[in-house]
Amino acid sequence: MKKLKWILPLLILTVMLGGCPYGSTIPLDTTGKKINKELLGTWEPKSSSDEQYKITKDDEFTYKIVKSSKNTKEPSIYKAYLTELDGELFLNLWEENGSTDKTYYLYKLELNSSSTKATLSSVTENITEKFTTPEEMRAFFKKYKGLSFFYDKTQDVFIKD
Questions:
Q1: What is the dihedral of CA 34, 138, 133, 16, to 10 degrees?
Q2: N or C: more exposed end of the chain, with fewer CB within 10 A?
Q3: Could you tell me the residue range of the domain that residue 97 belongs to?
Q4: Residue 60 CB: number of other CB atoms within 10 A?
Q5: Cα gap 86→80, rounded to integer Å
Q6: Contact 79, 67 (CB under 8 A)
Q7: Per residue in 59-84, pLDDT tens?
Q8: How confident is the model over 139-161, as pLDDT tens digits?
Q9: Contact assessment for residue 93 and residue 121, using Cβ atoms and an 8 Å cutoff
Q10: Are the C-beta atoms of residues 65 and 72 closer than 8 Å to each other?
Q11: What is the average pLDDT value for the chain, to the nearest integer?
């Protein structure tokens, strides 16, 4: 029982510090930028070789992302497109699960000059504002995207195979 007293607070702290990206029922934009062919291919997280993300073209504006893991038999399938705000790229990502209700997860995307390293900064889940249109959300993002607290503290880095 004493162990449980210590484990439970640690688990809660882990969830709080780990965080999740901001999820919204509306995207940052209704359509994205045309496909950047340099993003197509296979990417691996720098922190782990257990996962792999294969990015292909779904249509002229949308990427299909298949996440494979050594620990699971079935891959996860996502769709995404890019929105540009004042020269910065944001990824609108959702899980492709057959549902008409989508939750869009938003990330700032930075590519190195050779397009072999991608850094994703997830927009903090602490945004409490409610948006009814992509225009409202874009105005909010433009206003606050330059502030450090707008993003989670950790970044995900991916290397292209």
A1: 110
A2: N
A3: 20-160
A4: 11
A5: 20
A6: no
A7: 999 999 999 998 888 999 999 999 99
A8: 999 999 999 899 999 999 999 98
A9: no
A10: no
A11: 88
**Residue-by-residue DSSP string for the chain:** -HHHHHHHHHHHHHHHHH--B-EESS-S-SS-PPP-GGG-EEEEETT-SSEEEEEEESSSS-EEEEEEETT-SSPEEEEEEEEEETTEEEEEEEE-SS-S---EEEEEEEE-TTS-EEEEEEEBTT-----SSHHHHHHHHHHHTTSGGGEEEEEEEEEE-
pLDDT, greater one: 35 or 19: 35
Of 96, 126, 120, nearest to 108 by C-alpha is 120
Residue 79, domain CATH = 2.40.128.570
Tokens at 128, concatenated: 């409490």
Whether the Cβ atoms of residue 105 and residue 22 lie closer than 8 Å to each other: yes
**What is the β-pairing status of strands 117-123 and 151-160?**
antiparallel
- Only one residue has tokens 């484990």, namely 7
Domain annotation covers residue 103 = yes
Q: Is residue 116 part of a domain?
A: yes
9 falls within a domain: no
| Residue at 6 is within a domain | no
